[in-house]
Amino acid sequence: MAGGGLMRARRITSLSVFDVSSVTPAFDLGVGAVAFVTTRTGVSWDVRRFQSFSDSSERSTGFDGEHLSFWRATMAVVFRY
What we know:
Distance between the termini: 25 Å
Strand content: over 45%
Number of helices: 0
């Protein structure tokens, strides 16, 4: 599985003085599996990596030009009807 879109990153400080928000192009790659325990009930697993296209060696106070990435893993119960 793969996809692309926009990633919104936001940093909120305790006094809301230095809040920063940015939207950057991003993509994700993932794999998943479904296993049925009975004919109607099963379990689903999914692991994805989200990553922005931006990568800059310059340090900034915001997110502009920063490289953003994270992993997400999910597990769910599946019902077939």
